[in-house]
Pseudouridine synthase (Enterococcus mundtii), 239 residues
Amino acid sequence: MRLDKFLADIGLGSRKEVKGLIKNGLITVNGNCIKSDKYQVKETEDTVMYLDESLHYQKDFYYILNKPAGVVSATQDNHDQTVIDLLSDEDFREDLFPVGRLDKDTEGLLILTNDGQFSHQLLSPKKHVEKEYLAEVKGVMTKADVSAFAEGLLIDGEEQTLPAKLFIDSVDEKTNTSRIRLILHEGKFHQVKRMVKAVGKEVTYLKRIRMGNFLLPEDLILGEYRQMTPDELAQVRSK
């Protein structure tokens, strides 16, 4: 692999920026100062260093974030804080993006990555990767709603959803509220809210708690994130 690609892949800078570091003699490979950006390195064998710091090759990055309300699922926004803004300077990379989106007022499990193929695998309805949501609803959810969700709903009178699994955890008829869990295999715009609206109720709180077989860790508080482990990535990919 070319040295400039190695350095750009690990996030040391853009291809242009790392070429400058190399030209200025700031990069060593196996103890030798290298000033050619075309120099070939063995990414898993050679010792590459920048300012006496050893650089370890990693092409793809995966972070799990417990998204708080008020933050938008985007890489940049002119008005609101984005999920990328929650990253520290050390973890920030220009190629990171959220896998899918959670609405601005929705909390919970969100993955940030630079792996486009991984994102496609999780979001494609053909892959049938489950996404589970916890919601508080204004209105009393019923068995008839469970059946309607299982058949798929026509939302906003024009868009058909795939069948979804609705579980009614609790109902309080005095306050006219319900707590539900909903499992989807797709991610249409505002889908949970629109499906609940289609049966005459309103979502007042929404949180994603699972993707694939990976549950949002209980010890990850709102606004916190960390890199995912290989085992966690396997859980996300599993159906």
Summary: The CA atoms of residues 68 and 223 lie 5 Å apart. The chain has three domains: 3-55, 62-126+221-237, 131-211.
